[in-house]
Amino acid sequence: MNKQVFINLAVKDLQKSMNFYLALGFVNNPQFSDETAKCMVWSDSIFVMIMTHEKFSVFATKPIADTKSTLAGLFSLSFDNFAEVNRLVENGIKAGGIEPCEMRDYGFMQQRTIEDLDGHTWELFYMDISKFPTEASS
To answer: Per residue in 42-74, is it b (16+ CB within 10 Å) or e — as a string?
Structure first.
């Protein structure tokens, strides 16, 4: 079996959150979705499970963080070009997300940050590894 990554996030409004993730390019898998949780597919091996606080609490061993005021993690998604990053960040903003900081350009990588409706932070980036700095020979 291929290794898979499941990111589980507590959200306050399941439908609005699903719409946000659809705007970022995720696809909903209805087989693993119900009125308490939605399985949002990024690729064959990466999934985001968005769950109501009640559903999330079933699995949690600690109180749910207020991700609107506290950073709980940074999740990064790569794209084939920066135009796609820009398009999806704009779609995410239209779906209720916010962009908390300006675009960052590292020369070999351009990155934009977007927060979902609950403050979960996503870094969307394009990287051209051929532009990665190398040590200068002496």
So the answer is: beeeebbbbbbeebbeeeeeeeebebeeeeeee
> What number of residues does the chain have?
138
> Is residue 49 a contact partner of residue 39, using CB atoms and an 8 Å limit?
yes
pLDDT tens for each residue of 2-37: 899 999 999 999 999 999 999 999 999 999 999 999
Contact 115, 91 (CB under 8 A): no
pTM: 0.89
Q: What is the C-alpha to C-alpha distance for residues 69 and 72, in angstroms, rounded to an integer?
A: 9
Q: Which amino acid is at 18?
A: M
Domains and CATH numbers, the chain: 5-60+67-130 (3.10.180.10)
Provide the token pair at 69. 């005021």
Question: Which token pair is 58?
Answer: 């079933």
**Pairing relationship of beta strands 121-127 and 109-115 according to DSSP bridges:** antiparallel
